[in-house]
Amino acid sequence: MSELTRDEIVSAVHPVDDATVAEIIATGATEADLAAACRFVARENKAHETREVPTGVVGDVISIIERVGARPVGGSPLGEAGSTME
Predict the structure, then answer these.
(1) What whole-number distance in Å separates Cα of residue 57 and Cα of residue 47?
(2) How far is 72 from 38, CA to CA, in rounded Å?
(3) Torsions phi, psi of 2, nearest 5?
(4) Is the link from the previous residue into 72 a cis peptide, with omega within 30 of 0?
(5) Which of 25, 26, 52, 63 is the least buried, fewest Cβ under 10 Å from its Cβ?
(6) What's the pLDDT band for 75 if we cut at 50, 70, 90?
(7) SS3 for the chain, per residue?
(8) How far apart are CA 78 and CA 80, in angstroms?
(9) Between the CA atoms of 52, 10, 46 and 84, what dihedral angle is there, to the nearest 10 degrees?
């Protein structure tokens, strides 16, 4: 189990400040945990629906990401097919 670095967090979630980075690191999350949390938040945002947040470290990271209003980085800002229509 490896500890997340600031660069890994900043490259996965934006915008995020140093206090939030420290809070995510303090959860003990791994890179896989962060990836799972980002996938959850991205799917939730895309579907425009709220699902039950998982428990444990992944849930803790999801709660932090959602609380600060950050969004997972990745993919096209225009959607999968280049359109903002969903």
Answers:
(1) 23
(2) 5
(3) -110, 145
(4) no
(5) 52
(6) very low
(7) CCCCCHHHHHHHEECCCHHHHHHHHHCCCCHHHHHHHHHHHHHHHHHCCCCCCCCHHHHHHHHHHHHHCCEECCCCCCCCCCCCCC
(8) 7
(9) 170
End-to-end CA distance of the chain: 37
Kindly compute the dihedral angle of the four CA atoms of residues 18, 52, 2, 26, in this order, to the nearest 10 degrees.
Answer: 40
- Summarize pLDDT for 14-70 with one digit per residue, the tens: 989 999 999 999 999 999 999 999 999 998 878 777 778 888 999 999 999 999 999
Token pair, residue 17, equals 């400040």
* The model scores a pTM over 0.85: no
